[in-house]
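User: I'll paste a sequence; please echo it back and then give the predicted structure.

Assistant: Echoing your sequence first, then the prediction.
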Amino acid sequence: MVKSVLVIIGASSRRAAKYCALACLCLLTACQRTPAPAVTDPAAAPVAGQAVTITALIWAPDWPAQMRQIAAEFTRLNPDVKVDLQFMSGNSVEENLRPRVAAHTLPDLVSVNPNPYAAELADQGLLADVGASTAWQRLRPSLKADWMSPNGKRFGIAGGVAAPLIYYNKSMFRAAGIAHPPTDFSAFLDTCEQLKRAGFTPIHWSGGFPNLIGNGAFSVGFANNIVPRTPDWKARIADGTLALDNAAGADIFAKIRTVARRGYTQPDLMQPRRDQGIDDFVHGRTAMAFDGTWAAGGLLHPAGFEVGVFMPPWNARGAASVPVIGSETGFAVGASAHQAQAMRLLDYLTGAGFAIEQKKRQNIAPFAPGSGEQEGDPQILAYLAQAERSALTGSPYYSMLPAASIDLLHLLIQDVLTDRLTPRQAARKLEASIRDEARSHNK
């Protein structure tokens, strides 16, 4: 109970005293009145037995139907959890995440890359530790380091083993008189020239969806030009001292431009469709597709011709080719009120649900060998074994560059392909971005 005292100074008349007593009574009554209950939204109140709805924001540019099926099957088996499934768009996972993080609307389950940006989200408390999940226990030991934050938080699960490679049409190679795939970049250009003279379009270049060129030509260009010369390249990216404004850095972009300038790509190389490269290859419109293990299901078994694969020969003649191996874009759980339900979806997605995805993708499973799951196409597994025997390996660009530099790289690739920038200018801008991101992070 709240007591109120009204003190009147200088009230000499009886009428004033009467009004003051009345005011005091009203004030006391108002202070003692029970407050009205707060108005709440009935829809927001939890109801016993009601299903919980969790949000899932997924990067699945080539398997959305399979992800919808996984979500539906999970809900069928878990009727207490519904999945509000949304798909990322654009050129990168990070450009989808940043506005959600800024608006404090990070989904319960979300696609992430194994890079410093996601690790920082984990250390800021925005992503949950998935170390107690079944998914983490089954993850390949060789991939676990990719998903550990500086503070030791296990922030995600790989969607597969990622390795960019070149798929090729064996019939076209034979028709052009090419006995075997090229083993260095000079030989690769000769192969493209032979295919062009034979009337074939050598390769698909996805200028409108530069994520693919980043995964492919940029990642292997970096692996062959920078990794052998700079053993501490990861530390130099972290502290902003990596040198790219030089001949080796410029050559990464120059190779991308050379393939286009010599007319070895499809005419509409700046068109934006992600699946156009797969479609062109499987329908015999291009002789090669520079893609990754993640696209094996769509590229390996077209009707009408046999497909082979080979290591991208972005090395100089006489030098060993440096392959790229890492984790595919994976999945993390947001530190939300529905964390437990999202963790169940994560375990299903990387467990029983993986078989649904694998029917389409045929990628390299992220699980420890011998787990009993479909591990991938034999030809792709043989390629991985070959790559793992290499003395040096590089990493996918999305797992090594800062988030802002990833987005910038896509624009730089397009600017080089359209002659708005020279390769050296692009390399200089990328070096500056990496330096600026390191300074900003280390303030």
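The first helix runs from residue 14 to 32. Residues 1-46 have pLDDT under 50 and may be disordered.
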